[in-house]
Amino acid sequence: MEIQELVYYLEVPRDIVIVSHRNPDGDAVGSTLAIGRLLRKAGHTVHMILPSEFPPFFNWMPDIDRVWIYDIRTEESVKVLKEADLIWMLDFNSLDRIDKMGEEIHHRVDAKKVLIDHHLDPEPIADLMVSEVQASSTSELVYDFIQDAGWGNQIDLEMATSLMTGILTDTGSFKYNTRPVLFHKVANLLGLGIDLNELQIKIFNTLPVKFLRILGYCLHKRMDIIDEYHTGIISLSKEDFERFDIQRGDTEGIVNYLLMIQEVKFAILITEQPTIVKLSFRSKGEFSVQEFARDNFKGGGHKNAAGGATYGTLSKTVKKVKSLLPLYEKSLKSA
User: Fold this and answer.
1) Cα separations (Å) of 79 from 95, 113, 142, 226, 232?
2) Nearest to 28 by CA among 53, 65, 8
């Protein structure tokens, strides 16, 4: 399917389901809300479903109350997925990123599917795939798609705000994953009336006191700097989660603080979950955390931001990570 074929297909009302990945971030939420609003304005019946809950600091976003959480509204979600004419997938490159929803979508061979994503190595899971790993975010690609489809004049302030939220969060407020063309698009979005200062405050400066207590604890008690390999590690145990009542989204962005240290090129956050140990990787320069995650923890992502997971204990995972660092010594020193 080409974009213009999809435009023609959407000239009559359709039942559409929009999905994004588990543990949704600002890009997943922003791109979902923007596409959802666009399609509703065109007269389609639209359901937006996320596998798990989004962080509460996105509660202010336009149309966020329309989003369903699959873990909470499972039966209703399955029903609309089975009845959908079109399934729109955003910000993930394989169906295993959406857990049980992926199984439902896999079995919908009669539904048309669209994928818009900026992660490496997307699987062939859609009739129309818009994939560009150089893009800052899926929200940037959604903006491009809307323009290419000839719908640019349909972007309103609410849609622009959602797209800007995705761009701001995935670039760390324009600190990485940027290129000159991105700022032309951002200028166009700002021209629709976005108050950038207010938006930055809503996204980055509305954290609860608990987050700062967790951050302080991480930096004071749980940070390990390995100078020889330009690496910083923060690890949190199940007991730490209980002590601070850490919920979904409470550790968002903590790994980035390690990169504020001049000598650190490789930052790692390791968290002990009920059944698995999750790892978040960030890097400076040319060191590819995507390759590190893919080769050692069945993960993936981008060159400078990736994630993975493993079974076992927290201590064994930390030991494994440290044992791997000598293998990457040359890459880390030259990054």
Assistant:
1) 18, 17, 26, 51, 45
2) 53
For residue range 112-159, what is the model confidence (pLDDT) as tens digits? 999 999 998 899 999 999 999 999 999 999 999 999 999 999 999 999
Residue entry with tokens 């400066």: 205
Q: Which of 108, 118, 114, 101 is nearest to 44 (CA)?
A: 114
End-to-end CA distance of the chain: 40
Residue 176: pLDDT band with limits 50, 70, 90: confident
Per-residue DSSP letter, 17: E
The single residue listed with the structure tokens 């690609």 is: 141
d(CA 130, CA 96): 19
Q: What is the pLDDT of residue 127?
A: 96
φ and ψ of 130, to 5 deg: -110, 105
The 10 Å Cβ neighbour count of residue 236 is 24
Q: Domains in the chain and their CATH numbers? A: 3-204 (3.90.1640.10), 211-334 (3.10.310.30)
Record the tokens describing residue 176, joined without a space.
Answer: 């990485």
- Residue 248 is predicted with a pLDDT of 77
* pLDDT tens by residue, 296-312: 999 988 899 999 999 99
Q: For residues 62 and 23, what is the distance between their CA atoms, to the nearest angstrom?
A: 19
pTM, whole model, 2 decimals? 0.91
> Which ranges of 151-308 does DSSP label H, i.e. alpha helix?
157-170, 180-190, 196-204, 209-221, 238-243, 289-297
Q: Which residues are paired to 68 by β-bridges?
A: 49
Question: For the residues 267-291, what does the mean pLDDT come to?
Answer: 95
Q: Which amino acid is at 175?
A: K
The answer to whether 236 touches 215, Cβ cutoff 8 Å, is no
